[in-house]
Records
---
Amino acid sequence: MATKAVRASRSSRSAGRRHPLATVALLVVGLVGTGGAYALFTSSATAETSVSAEALVEEGGKLFAANCATCHGLNLEGSTQGPMLIGVGAASTDFQVGTGRMPLAYSGPQGEKKPVQFTEEQIQALSVFVASKGPGPAIPADMYLTGEGDVSNGAELFRVNCAMCHNVAGAGGALTEGKYAPGLSGVTPKHAYEAMLTGPQNMPVFNDANLSPEEKADIITYLKYLDETPSVGGFTLGSLGPVSEGLFIWIFGLGALVAITVWLTAKSN
């Protein structure tokens, strides 16, 4: 009886024991299932992104043909009316169209800032379309547009690189042949960064070798400081510097003294 019981116990343990390859088989099934699901998800996401990019390029191409090709050519090759746009990148397109400078209202020494003609979605589509025709500067990352950099370093960089045209207070100034450096009050961080990166019109290009992204962010911080900080000296007279201040004193100050002198003389007589 004891022998039969021992044999029965061994037989039951053998029946309940897993095969040595069962664990390996389970791992293989799990890995295959997980990998397949990941591959399916990734391919779907990639397909959706590709379709979205293709849709933007197609939409941007239609907008470009309707609004820009007359001057810049259907293939961005340029013409006597406008420069070639191959290789200018998304940043240049976003700046020019996003500030209303393009399409031009009329031919002149430089494009005037005016109300924007397109929606944000249309501007994005145009930027993607132009960028698809040749590599160029991309739209800056949000991390450089917060306005939370080093304001003192930004002020120094602005004074050295920008103040000779835009004025140390960003009020703008006249250039040659009817051109001018625009005032920078109220310019969005994205457009300020894009202008430094692409050098629109007479402005030089400050690529990342000239000014690093962090230094551009510091300059944007300084411009934000100018916008938010009131003048400690009172009336700014347009922040145009000592020439405008001297002219104001010459005309109004001396004029007031002459008027008071004339009035006192007339009263005494």
---
Amino acid sequence: MKAFIFDLDGVITDSAEYHYLAWKALGEDLGIPFDREFNETLKGVSRTESLERILRLGGRENDFSVEEKGRLATKKNEHYVSLISNITSADILPGIEVFLSDLKEAGYKVGMASASKNAQMVTHQLGLLDAFDHIVDAATVTDSKPHPEVFLKAAAALQVEPKDCVGIEDAVAGIEAIHAAGMFAVGIGDPEVLTEAELVFTDTSILTLDHVLARI
């Protein structure tokens, strides 16, 4: 393996809670309440597709024009950005800084493949921009996860063949995208949910280079 490519939300920092709060507020405005269980289906999914899923949940998928849906997605994002404006390095998930440092010292290339259009901003606020050789976010891809485009673009930017990359994700859609790209998949979360990953860590505190390489 020559490169490690990370998702952002739920792997580097847990901004998933802020996404949930912002989507929930929009849903309530539209008269479409939903719970955390439904919110799990939005993990790793693009903003546009997340909105479509919420509208389908409420039977309102045909109530808005493309332009109106765009404004709804923008409203959600503005709320989300306001919620994450105070994120700092203290919000980096346990063990991630050490893991990123170990990868750099060992000579691996490090990339990010995020479904968030705010990936650059969040990474900057975390103080981790220098830890990544390249960041690909939702603003630079056509197809969202589980399509492999974001991971393939990251591998190309790092000048590494996909088969020589490890992808790290916390969402089922992300694991599917990693496999579709032809990469080795590492999951962060519940092994009973991320069943397709070759290797699953229940949380980032036990994610280490030695543990990953031992399995590969």
